[in-house]
Every structure is written in C-alpha cells, then in structure tokens.
C-alpha cells in the first residue's frame, strides 16, 4: 500500500471512529449529521465524500464493523475453550465483556435491526446470520449432528444472547452478573435438551 493509499485509509478510519464516539444511549446513528461526524474527525465536510458516498454508507460500515468485532471476540472465546474451560461460561463472559466495553456498538446493532432503513435492517440481519453460521459450524463439529439441527440450536442460542445483551445495556455490574448467570443456565438447558434430543433420534 502506497503512502497516499495509507493516508486515505487512515482518514477513513478517523471518520468511522468519530461516528462511533458520537453514539450513546441518548444518540442513535440516525440523529448524527455529516457535519458533526466530520467535525469530530477534525476534517472538512467536503473531505467526507472522498471516503463515503453518504451517511448511509458510513452507517452500513459501522454495522459491518460492529458485527465483525463481536464475531472476532467469540472466535477468541472458542480458542480459550480449546485451551480448556466451559464452552458456555467462557462464551457468556466474553459476550458480557463486549457489552461492557463497547455498549454503543451493540446499541447500533440493536437499533438498526428494527430501524426505518431497509438497508440497515438487512445489514444487521446479515451480521446475525454470520454470527449464527459460525456457531452452527462449531455445534455441528462438536456434537456430530446434522447441519439443520445444529442451525436450529444456534438460532435459539443467538436469540437468547441478543435479548440478554439488550437488557445488559442498562444494568450495573451486579445486575449484569445476575443476568450472566441466568443466561448461562438458559444456554445450558438448550444444550442439554439438544443433546438429549439428538441421542433420542439415534435410538
């Protein structure tokens, strides 16, 4: 990558980070203006168009990055599991750490999942599908079960995780700890039920 390309990528990154910084419990992406993002990034508004066609394109980039960040964390969790540890406990701990450290990234995914923009809804749906597919791969391999069955189990688990994540956003540390225990139990029940059902099918 040449110097000019590196500078362009650095400026693009600056705009993305500036938009993420402006998100909060009180401010959604739809309330941000191009000028606000450019000002936060320390750039002239005209510079914005060298990197993004419009605010929607920037927003879709944020959704993609948010989903990718979460998937990368869960991959790291699986590595920790490979080194020894409880699958569900480590996964729940990793997810709750993500909520605590990057609440506005998760808020973005939740808000745009049911927002007014069809493009944003589709982008979030794709990220959830990616998340579900990676979990399906893991369950299919570990449980030696059919793809469709592993996918059904993964979908149930992802539904619980995202629902708990939405609750966790407005909780304090103690409340999140209680929620994490509840989520761990719920996921274990699904896993135990899946295992029992899978064994029964083989009889």
Structure commentary:
Helix content is 81%, strand content 0%. The chain is built from nine helices and no strands. It starts with a helix and ends with a helix. The model has no long low-confidence stretch (mean pLDDT 90). InterPro entries: DesT_TetR_C (IPR054129), DNA-bd_HTH_TetR-type_CS (IPR023772), Homeodomain-like_sf (IPR009057), HTH_TetR (IPR001647), HTH_transcr_repressor_FabR (IPR050692). This is DNA-binding transcriptional regulator FabR. Residues 10-70 form the HTH tetR-type domain. Residues 33-52 bind DNA.
Name given to the CATH homologous superfamily of the largest domain: Tetracycline Repressor, domain 2
Instruction: Determine the mean pLDDT.
Output: 90
Under CATH, the topology of the largest domain can be stated as Tetracycline Repressor, domain 2
Q: Into which percent range does the helicity of residues fall?
A: over 70%
SS summary, helix count: 9
Radius of gyration: 19 Å
Give the topology string: H per helix, E per strand.
HHHHHHHHH
The CATH class of the largest domain is Mainly Alpha
**What class would the helix/strand composition place it in?**
mainly alpha
Q: What is the distance, rounded to the nearest whole angstrom, between the alpha carbons of the first and last residues?
A: 58 Å
């Amino acid at each position: 990558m040449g110097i000019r390309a590196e500078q362009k990528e650095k400026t693009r990154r600056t705009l993305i980070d500036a938009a993420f910084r402006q998100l909060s419990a009180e401010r959604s992406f739809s309330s941000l203006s191009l000028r606000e993002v450019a000002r936060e990034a320390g750039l002239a508004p005209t510079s914005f168009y060298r990197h993004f066609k419009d605010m929607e394109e920037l927003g879709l980039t944020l959704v993609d990055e948010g989903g990718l960040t979460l998937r990368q964390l869960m991959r790291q969790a699986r590595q920790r599991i490979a080194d020894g540890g409880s699958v569900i406990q480590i996964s729940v701990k990793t997810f709750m750490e993500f909520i605590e450290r990057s609440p506005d990234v998760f808020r973005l995914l939740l808000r745009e999942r049911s927002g007014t923009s069809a493009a944003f809804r589709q982008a979030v749906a794709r990220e959830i599908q990616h998340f579900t597919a990676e979990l399906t791969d893991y369950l299919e391999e570990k449980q030696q079960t059919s793809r469709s069955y592993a996918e059904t189990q993964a979908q149930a688990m992802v539904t619980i995780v995202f629902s708990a994540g939405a609750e966790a956003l407005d909780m304090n540390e103690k409340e999140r700890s209680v929620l994490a225990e509840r989520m761990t139990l719920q996921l274990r029940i699904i896993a135990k039920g899946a295992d029992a059902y899978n064994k029964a099918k083989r009889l």
